[in-house]
Automatic annotation (TrEMBL), chain A:
InterPro entries: Hist_DNA-bd, Histone-like_DNA-bd_CS, IHF-like_DNA-bd_dom_sf, IHF_alpha. Belongs to the bacterial histone-like protein family. This is Integration host factor subunit alpha. Keywords: DNA recombination, DNA-binding, Transcription, Transcription regulation, Translation regulation. GO terms for molecular function: DNA binding; structural constituent of chromatin. SMART domains: BHL. GO terms for biological process: DNA recombination; positive regulation of metabolic process; regulation of DNA-templated transcription; regulation of translation. Heterodimer of an alpha and a beta chain. GO terms for cellular component: cytosol. The gene is ihfA. It comes from the Bacteria.
From TrEMBL, chain B:
Heterodimer of an alpha and a beta chain. Keywords: DNA recombination, DNA-binding, Transcription, Transcription regulation, Translation regulation. This is Integration host factor subunit beta. GO terms for cellular component: chromosome; cytosol. It comes from Siculibacillus lacustris. The gene is ihfB.
């Protein structure tokens, strides 16, 4: 593993290289892709991207948690959380490359 | 929403682009994230979330039905942690913590 961190700038560069829009427009489009996915999830709709994975929203009821440091019990309020379920294709690709060379 | 719907929605908002280009853009983004993860790199998208790869070491599992021991090989699994802004937006703008 190289231990690098990829950011928005790298995604914009990839769009710029592959699609041939201006850098500014590539950046705008990357933002719109993430924005559209986010908006969908906020509306409660899941987003299924074939061969990549599915983003979905789960509603969690109230439960009792514990402060791991003090052992004190604290109620955890009901909330909505976002979950990413990677597709089998993505999992396979990762294990194909990382699996052998280590 | 599925990928083709995402592409149509983006194309609607960008009438100056061909639908085909929008498709390439969406694929470029997903491919870039995928190839980073296959290198074991992290992908951090502020406000949205971060993708990373976790290692699951080899272990001896058990068939829950028969109780028989089975060797499970080492695995790498993609992991996603929701960003702060996204977490807040899902809960009416309130940050409820992790």
């Amino acid at each position: 593993m190289t231990g690098k961190t990829i950011t928005r700038a790298d995604l914009c560069e990839a769009v710029y290289q592959k699609v041939g829009l201006s850098r500014t427009e590539s950046a705008d489009l990357v933002e719109m892709v993430l924005g559209e996915i986010s908006n969908c999830l906020v509306e409660g709709e899941s987003v299924k991207l074939s061969s990549f994975g599915t983003f979905l929203v789960r509603s969690k009821g109230e439960r009792i948690g514990r402060n791991p440091k003090t052992g004190e019990e604290v109620p955890i309020s009901p909330r909505r959380v976002m979950v990413f379920k990677p597709s089998n294709v993505l999992k396979q690709k990762i294990n194909d490359t990382l699996g052998d060379d280590e | 929403m599925i990928k083709s719907e995402l592409v149509s929605r983006l194309a609607e908002r960008n009438p100056h682009l061909y639908q085909r280009d929008v498709e390439h853009i969406v694929n470029a983004v997903l491919d870039e994230i995928t190839s980073a993860l296959t290198r074991g790199d992290r992908v951090e998208l502020r406000g949205f979330g971060a993708f990373s790869v976790k290692n699951r070491p080899a272990r001896t599992g058990r068939n829950p039905r028969t109780g028989q021991k089975v060797a499970v090989t080492e695995k790498y699994v993609p992991f996603f942690k929701t960003g702060k802004e996204m977490r807040e937006r899902l809960n009416d703008g309130v940050d409820l913590g992790d």
